[in-house]
Every structure is written in structure tokens, then in C-alpha cells.
Amino acid sequence: MKRKILCCLITICVMIPFVSVCASADNSSYIMVDDKNIVEIGKIEIKGDESGITTSAEYDAETNSLILDNYSAYSIVANNMGDLNLIIKGTASVSYNTSIDQQPEFAVRGGNLSIISADDNGAYMSIYADPTKPESYGMYVEGDLSIYNVYTKCCTYEYDEDCNIEDSYGLYCYGNVLLDGSYFEFGSNIARDLSVGIYAESIELKHGNLYAYSCESTSSIGVDCQDVYIADGSFSAYGSSCAATSAPSFAPNYHGMVEALKDLEEALPFVIESVAEADPTVFTDCVQFYIHLPTLKEIIVSDAALNFEIKDRPKFTAVIPDEYKNLYEIDYEAWENYENSSYISSSQYMNDYHLSNDSKLIDKFEDGDTYYYTISLKNLDENVRFGYDTKLIINDETVNAEISVSEDGSIITFYHVKAMSFMLNGDVNCDGVVTMEDVTALQKVIANLITLESLGSNSSEKADCNNDTQVTMEDVTMIQKYLARLIEL
């Protein structure tokens, strides 16, 4: 079956009736981790066999937090715990336990759930849960759900080939979902009738990448939600019946990738609204939209030092005119010689990087070498981005250069803005200066006493002062006139 990607704001394509899931009639408060009420016992520790690493699950009553330290469970069920925090250290999982043939479940009933990384570097949580009931859930939350900086993969999964799942949800949330700071994947991998990646009242993707998908079934929906708001990151939804039941909205300065994937022969209608710009790219079997801000049309740079003499030291003087300083700033300038792998930049970071890759730093511009100028700039205006159509005007001249742009459009680098070659005509003996010694050397060449090749690799080009591709007494005469300050070479 052909797969298509529908992007941006997807019109409502399938109306799915609300599936009522009744809250538990159990009024007691507890958190069951596997078969233990951790609210009562406080902590569970499991010592590793060969590794010696101890994993644990612990309840902190003061903050109403369940703390999982690299802990793997087959079931976590919280009941009437109010605003519960689930704090992840390292990696946590809820999945099928083969040793006791226990089906997995992750559910929070009668309260809100916040999942938080204990480390600024983030944490990882995987949930493969609850495939045994007619209505099956990877994660079930009766209140609001918030996830902060935890890489999350959550889905229903077929552990038993004989399971009889009618409706399946990767995430079923009665309330609002807030996702901030990582990768979030919710999927339904098995169902007969209704399969939904995410069901929620609303979803806000504050920052990160969200992927919601559902398997093929009678009705397969990626996201079933009244309101989806994308502030920053990428949003992907997949369902063979419908990618999303309502159109996402975007932050005013949103830029990123939005894709809705479908297994239908014809793409359903979609519109693009409240988005500054969108560029379609057509592939063999899909359409994908990269949504981004308008591109800045031109960059103005002045006072760049682009002309040097042999033996000059590189210097970096480029500035942004005052009227554009709120739009962008110079990241770095650089000169590079590809022949001898030498480099110099206004950025110490770039110099250190090239030194670590066996480059030499340029101290002076040398005779016979060619140097290329590069300039990189940072975007300061959140309402625009750099693009490959952004022009560079430097020292009042529009230049054609090789361009690279960062994925988010915040950095643009112009390569080969100028090539500067040094060739000291008349310096026949290649010692860096033109003197009577060069006249004598050229006379000896013409008299076949020595060869140009013996004088240096660029000697032939330097000796041909009149550029007629021959070395004759006319070239000797031109060097003599140059030494007498009668002409320039």
C-alpha cells in the first residue's frame, strides 16, 4: 500500500466517537510497583548479578514522587495520588516479564502525572504495556500529563498472538499533555477496531520531537485530540485512516518539520495557515513540508580586510553596520590555504578545531600560495531565518559564494568569498624579493646555464613578466625597468 506524508495543518478527516473509560471506583491511595505498594514500604532495591549495579524504585512522601533509578518493572499503577511526580534516573522501563508471565501495565488513576529527568542531560523511559484487555493502553492517565527532558517511547505491543484487542491507545490521557525537551514516541501496534497513537484533550509540544502512530485496523488514527499546539520541534503523525483529527496550530515564529503520514491512495485535503512559509518537496511516494520563517534577503558587512601583500599578517576587521546589528552578528572570519592545509580565524574555537585536525595556523601570507576568505554569521532576529537565497553584500559588493545554512536557519556561512593569490612577478629565484640577482638568474636560464625548475616551483610563472608564455630577454628588460622604478610588474 502506498504511503503518503500529509504535512502541516491537516483538515479533519475522520470523526471518531469518544470512547468512555470510567475512572476506578477504588477510593484508596497507593502506588503499586509490580506487586508491592511502595507508598507503604518506601523503597525497592534489586542488586545486579554480574554487573553488581543496584537498581531501585523509591517513594518520597514529601514531594509525592516515585523515583526510578535504572529500574525495570512489569507494572506501575498509581491510584488517587493527586499530583504525582515520576522522576527518572538513567533508564526506566515497563514491559512484559517473561519469568513470571506477567502482562505489563502503566496507569495513573485519579490524578495528574509529571515525568521528570533527574539529570540535566536527560533520561530514557520505555513502556510496552497492557495488551490483554479489550481496551488496551501503553500509558493511561486520568488527569494531565507533563514530560520534561525524558526520551520517551510508549506503545501497546503484541506479547501474545492469541490476544483479543479491540481498541488500542499508545497514550490515553483524559486531560492535557505537555511535552518539553526531548523525543516523544507514542504508538498503537495492535488492534482490531480502533487504533490510536495519542488520545488527549490537548497537546502542547513546547520543545522536542513528537511522533504518534497507529497500526492498521478498522480505524487507525495518529493523533485524536481537540487541540494540538506546536511551539518548537517536529511533529509527525501516522494513521491509515487519519493522521490527525484536528488541525495543529503553531507558535508565531515556528520553524521545523511537520509531517502526517497516511496509507491512502489519494491525499486528503490540507491547508497551511498561521505559518510564515512552507516549501514542498515531492518524493516518489510522499509529500513533506518543511515549515520555516521567512528568509532574510541580504546581509550587509562592511570594513572587511580582503586585500593583503606578501608577508602581511592576516587581520579580521569586518563589522555589521549599526542599523543591522539587531538582525545578525559575525560569528567568525577566516582565511584558508587548501594546498598546505593551513588556516586562521577570528574564532579561537575554529583555530583549535583545525589544529586538532592536523592543520597549521597561517602566520603570514606567503608568495606562491592562494588563500580563500570565509565569513560566518549568527541570526539574532527570531522572526526570520537565514536561507540559501540570502545574499551577502560585503564592502558594498554583492558576492557569489558557496553557502551552508544550519538546519534551524540560525547560522549561515559563506565560503570562498574571495580568493587571494600571491605571485611576485620577477622573483625568478623565489626568495621573496625582486633584485639584480633575479636578472642574473634569468640571463643564465636564457643562456642555458641553469634551468628555471632548479630555481623554484613557481619560477617559470614569475619569470614570464610580460605573460607571453615565453622566457626571453624582454622579461629580463622588464625586471630591470622595475628595479629602476620605471614600470610595475
Chain-wise SSE layout:
Blueprint: E1 4-6, E2 9-10, E3 30-33, E4 36-37, H1 38-41, E5 43-47, E6 54-60, E7 65-69, E8 72-73, E9 75-89, E10 91-94, E11 105-117, E12 123-128, E13 135-141, E14 145-148, E15 150-156, E16 167-173, E17 176-188, E18 194-214, E19 219-230, E20 234-238, E21 242-244, E22 249-250, E23 256-262, E24 270-271, E25 277-282, E26 287-292, E27 298-301, E28 328-337, E29 342-345, H2 348-356, E30 360-361, E31 370-379, E32 391-394, E33 397-399, E34 402-405, E35 411-421, H3 436-446, H4 459-463, H5 473-483
Parallel strand pairs: 7-9, 8-10, 9-11, 10-12, 11-13, 11-14, 12-15, 13-16, 14-17, 15-17, 16-18, 17-18, 18-19, 18-20, 19-21, 19-22, 20-23, 27-32, 29-30
Antiparallel strand pairs: 1-23, 2-24, 3-4, 3-9, 5-6, 6-7, 23-26, 25-26, 28-29, 28-31, 31-35, 32-33, 34-35
Helix pairs in contact: 3-5
Structure report:
The structure is a single chain. The chain is mainly beta. The protein has helices spanning 38-41, 348-356, 436-446, 459-463, 473-483, and strands at 4-6, 9-10, 30-33, 36-37, 43-47, 54-60, 65-69, 72-73, 75-89, 91-94, 105-117, 123-128, 135-141, 145-148, 150-156, 167-173, 176-188, 194-214, 219-230, 234-238, 242-244, 249-250, 256-262, 270-271, 277-282, 287-292, 298-301, 328-337, 342-345, 360-361, 370-379, 391-394, 397-399, 402-405, 411-421. The strands form four sheets. Strands 11-13-16-18-17-14 form a six-stranded parallel beta barrel. Strand 3 and strand 4 (36-37) form a beta hairpin. The longest helix is centred in the last third of the chain and has 11 residues, at 436-446.
